[in-house]
Amino acid sequence: MHRRPLLAALAAAATPLAARAQAGDFPARAVTMVVSFPPGGQGDVVARPVAAGLERLWKQPVPVVNRAGAAGEIGNASVARAAADGHTLLMGLSSMAVIPEAAKLLGRQPAYEMEQFAPIALFTADPTFLVVPAAAPWQTLEALLEDARRRPGAIPYSSSGNYGALHVPMAMLTTAAQVNLLHVPFQGGGPALTALLSGQVQLMASGPGPITPHLRSGAFRVLASWGATRIAGFEQVPTLMERGFPEAEYYIWAGIFAPAGTPAPLREALRQAMATVARDPDLQRALAAGGNALDYRDGAAFEEFLRADTARLVRAVQRIGKIE
């Protein structure tokens, strides 16, 4: 009579032990790191040195897979549905919190919800820059906005797709400044940057990593940033907030996520691995060379950051409204 409850109790007791054993053996094979955009964008720029650091630590391959499409929705959703065994991770960008809210605005079922992810570690959280070619006629933000008011819809900017990580900050600006710029969406930050380099568009929002080589070469210049304060190394660049747009605060962050069902011991093993990699001088040099500052957070600190930033982004999307 007592056999079935006894077996159930033994199985329940064995589950944490099995998870701890699995974490102790982890990883036994390659761990895939998904980037939901093409090569060359912020997610890719951060993912590759992190993956290289994990390979050195784990002695296992960590391939970076660029699974682009729908402003990041396709790649993000693929990780949300992946096996929760620690072997599929997402290098997520700030836009991942925007996409479900945008889907609801458009009247469709979101491909995923943020609750389907377990946040593991934040690596970068960079204020975004407003970038133009060096040959552009505007030397200041005010000159650009004045021109945009004279020529509504005539000045094109590129982005990583509707409601993507490079579109939301621009939409924040155009909404706050009440100007009409021509939005030209691409499949990711890499193609959006190529469009600016080739002259297809005249401005874009970008994190520092992808644009740093072009700032150093003199091909681009920065008119403003979406940070709360001026940025070290760019002290001459004003913030949009100080120029009269208090709601225009935006960060392109990049962090590691696992599927939400990943057992706690595995999540802790992943967190410890990320913390070790963050201390790796090779990783720090690689990020710095790409123009990214390490801003490492994990555990409660990352979760608190994520809650606050998600709330700010959801409010921004609701202000921007429906985009066909």
Automatic annotation (TrEMBL):
It holds the Pfam family TctC. Coiled coil: none annotated. The keyword Signal applies. The keyword Ubl conjugation does not apply. SUPFAM superfamilies: Periplasmic binding protein-like II. InterPro entries: BUG, Bug_dom1. CDD domains: PBP2_Bug_TTT. It comes from the Bacteria. Residues 1-21 form the signal peptide. Keywords: Signal. Belongs to the UPF0065 (bug) family. This is Tripartite tricarboxylate transporter substrate binding protein.
